[in-house]
Design brief:
Blueprint: H1 10-32, H2 37-67, H3 79-82, H4 84-89, H5 96-131
Helix pairs in contact: 1-2, 1-5
Length: 147
């Protein structure tokens, strides 16, 4: 998504968030009694991958700041949009703006997908109601299709 900043695009962000939430979802399955050791192995492997992605992005940011002589550009965190004093208290990160943009884009994509799903579900229900044949007779005793 952002040139020169691999690993913080929408796809990677989605993968990392899903992988980090997987253990929580699996705990529900443990309570229900449907979890297995094979599932936990896969979850731990995906969780390790996700954590390594986050750590590598943090490491790359520190290397970039070191190469820039720690001067780097002024922090581009979202707090800057709200208040200058709030920005001075926020942690300094040159990747905060791209990651925030990726989060907003991912949220927009997920919101659009869910809204489309709800629209299609409502449309399918409406079409099913319209497709139901109306009874020929108002009295069920005379209607042969109900027998």
């Amino acid at each position: 998504m952002f040139a020169g900043l691999p690993g913080i695009g929408v796809g990677t962000l989605f993968y990392v968030l899903i992988a980090l939430v997987m253990p929580v979802v699996e705990l529900v399955k443990v309570v229900q009694g449907t979890s297995s050791l094979a599932r936990w192995r896969r979850i731990i492997r995906q969780w390790i991958y996700a954590v390594s992605i986050v750590v590598s992005i943090m490491f790359a940011e520190r290397v970039m700041l070191w190469m820039l002589g720690q001067a780097g550009p002024e922090s581009m965190n979202p707090a800057r949009l709200l208040n200058r004093e709030l920005m001075s208290r926020a942690p300094s990160s040159i990747l905060a703006a791209p990651i925030t943009a990726s989060l907003l884009l991912l949220g927009g994509v997920l919101l659009t997908v869910e809204a489309t799903h709800l629209y299609k579900l409502a449309r399918r229900k409406r079409l099913a109601r319209e497709a139901e044949p109306e009874p020929v007779f108002q009295n069920e005793a005379l209607d042969s299709s109900s027998q």
